[in-house]
Design a protein that fits this description.
CATH topology of the largest domain: Double-stranded beta-helix
Largest sheet: 6 strands, mixed
Mean pLDDT: 95
Radius of gyration: 25 Å
Structural class: alpha+beta
CATH superfamily of the largest domain: Clavaminate synthase-like
Helix content: 10-25%
CATH architecture of the largest domain: 4-Layer Sandwich
Length: 379
């Protein structure tokens, strides 16, 4: 949403400037920050939009020699000791205010959900996603807000899910390849390639950066059983924080060893099960019992880690958090892999096939696509 507040008053302090907006809000900006973020063509390249001023050659104690509100409150003008003139719009200053609130990243905030709070499954037709920018934006918004979306009416043919995924990002190759088929196999190297129950988990926590978004396209489903399960890991983490704050804190702090092992690979990574971003907000869930290695945290933290993971697991397996449904041929289950855990019920491979085609893309590309379609790709 575009912010239209004007500048009403500015006051200089020793190392910062106080700005009053017409909305009644007030923000402080350090002088060095203002100089570093001058938007003129001498400081930011006009074509690449990249900073060309050498930040670390600036005096960190710099103070503007003159400042004034211009153009009826729509702009702030600063003159620096070397005569350099900087100008900032009121809209830009308001949207970059780091003093009193979290600066927006241009994306919808996540909406944690339980089965009861989710009025309906977010969904969209494949034609809408593939055929229009508005449809693509709606699709990405659903992924961002709810962590998943069901794409309907995609032809149940191999290769189609890759085309859908490429609408929002580059295909992410892993040790399973660029894409993969999920079905019961005679010689599986992952429990996903069996017919047994698959508890809710996130994929590939054993990688330095697990894939951000997973696509699972149903090609065939005639087997008995095999219903899909989705759980919002953010909602589970929030509930854990309410019920057992000590366990929550321990899971944000103590690293878990995740490991994938077969004839060709030995992939290991340590990471807490719950990660917070720089604002203390939930950013990532890593959870996969089958890929948890022999835990090797410190002796003093070992019991706390087991207790924390058990408490987290108890909540995520509650019926009120497990969204269960049968994926039908032509439907694509798309979800944030580092937020929404997925699983499936056991199925009988003798009763008929259950075949899914899958691939991954990364969140940063999808979120970038959303910002570009919103027209936010500018200074």
């Amino acid at each position: 949403m575009k912010i239209t507040s004007l500048l009403s008053k500015v006051q200089a302090r020793d190392n910062y400037l106080v700005i009053d907006f017409s909305t009644g809000e007030q923000s402080r900006f350090h002088w060095i920050w203002l100089r570093d973020n001058c938007l003129c063509q001498k400081c930011h390249h006009p074509q690449t939009l990249e900073r060309v001023v050498d930040t670390w050659s600036l005096d960190t104690q710099i103070v503007s020699e003159d400042y004034k509100i211009a153009d009826s409150g729509t702009n702030l003008q600063l003159t620096w000791p070397d005569g350099h003139l900087s100008e900032y719009s009121s809209v830009w200053l308001r949207s970059h205010s780091y003093d009193t609130e979290r600066v927006s990243d241009g994306l919808p905030d996540p909406t944690p959900w339980s089965v009861n709070s989710l009025k309906s499954r977010p969904s969209i037709s494949a034609q809408s996603v593939l055929g229009s920018d508005q449809g693509t934006m709606t699709f990405i918004r659903q992924l961002r807000e709810f962590g998943f979306s069901i794409v309907t009416d995609l032809s149940p043919d191999e290769g189609m899910v890759e085309e859908l995924a490429k609408r929002i990002g580059f295909l992410r190759e892993t040790h399973f390849g660029v894409d993969f088929t999920v079905e019961s196999k005679p010689d599986p190297n992952n429990v996903a390639y069996t017919a047994i129950e698959l508890k809710a988990h996130t994929d590939l926590p054993n990688l330095e950066m697990p894939p951000g978004i997973q696509f699972l396209h149903c090609l065939q489903f005639d087997a008995e059983g095999g219903e899909s399960i989705l759980v919002d890991g953010f909602a589970v983490a929030e509930q854990l924080k309410k019920e057992n704050p000590t366990a929550f804190d321990n899971l944000t702090r103590i690293p878990v060893l995740y490991r994938f092992l077969d004839k060709e690979w030995d992939l290991r990574w340590h990471s807490p099960a719950i990660r917070l971003d720089h604002n203390g907000q939930l950013e990532e869930i890593r959870y996969h019992t089958a890929l948890t290695g022999a835990l090797d945290t410190s002796f003093d933290d070992m019991e706390a880690l087991y207790n924390g993971l058990r408490a987290f697991t108890e909540i995520l397996r509650r019926p009120e958090y497990e969204l269960k449904f049968k994926l039908m041929p032509g439907e694509v289950m798309v979800f944030q892999n580092r937020r929404v855990l997925h699983g499936r019920a056991a199925f009988d491979p003798q009763s008929g096939p259950r075949k899914l085609r899958g691939c991954y893309v990364d969140c940063d590309q999808a979120w970038s696509k959303f910002r570009v379609l919103q027209g936010l790709n500018k200074l």
